[in-house]
Amino acid sequence: MDELKLKVLELLKEDARRTPELVATMLGVEVDEVRRAIKEMEADHIIVKYATVVNWSKVDDEKVTALIEVQITPERGRGFDAIAERIYLHPEVKSVYLMSGAYDLLVEIEGKNLKEVASFVSSKLSPIESVLSTKTHFILKKYKQDGIIFEDHVEDYRMHISP
User: Fold this and answer.
1) CA–CA separation, 50 vs 43, rounded Å?
2) Per the database record, which ranges form the HTH asnC-type domain (predicted)?
3) In a structure prediction context, what are the per-residue pLDDT tens digits for the chain, which is 163 residues long?
4) Beta-bridge partners for 93
């Protein structure tokens, strides 16, 4: 990948609302070069989606997010891919990652409440033949996501006391 495309990606990842004109100005190149680079990266599925990072704790929308560690037995000939596909096709699944370490897949899901998440694990995930075990972790609070800090830093004005 050429240097221009990498720079365009960095600027768009930082703020997807940046126009090709603004990106071109920031990089000191022609607008047509930036437009061409963006179109090529969209066609090659390098740029897959333009998204907004939302601090859901500030919205009156009760959602429960869980990270599920999944141990699986890989399928002959397809390895982990076939099982990962069976899992990521469920609409409540937001992300699936192949991991190194104590478990094989990390699955991120969203539900309306704890019961909905538990139901997904017990009725859809655990019954898959290749799934050996699951361990569910509920996200209680997000401090930072995609490089964005959600909470305002509060300065500690207490006096330092030394012995």
Assistant:
1) 14
2) 1-81
3) 799 999 999 999 989 999 999 999 999 999 999 999 999 999 999 999 998 888 877 786 778 999 999 999 998 888 899 999 999 999 999 999 999 999 999 999 999 999 999 999 999 999 999 999 999 999 998 888 888 888 777 676 677 777 6
4) 109
91 shares a domain with 35: no
**Which tokens is 29 given?**
């190149």
The residue written with tokens 């305002």 in the block is 152
CB burial of residue 76 (10 Å; 0-12, 13-18, 19+): exposed
Is residue 8 included in any domain, yes or no?
yes
What's the gap between Cα 25 and its chain centre?
A: 30
CA pair distance 91, 105, nearest whole angstrom: 17
Residue range(s) defining the domain that contains residue 9 = 3-43
Which amino acid is present at 79? G
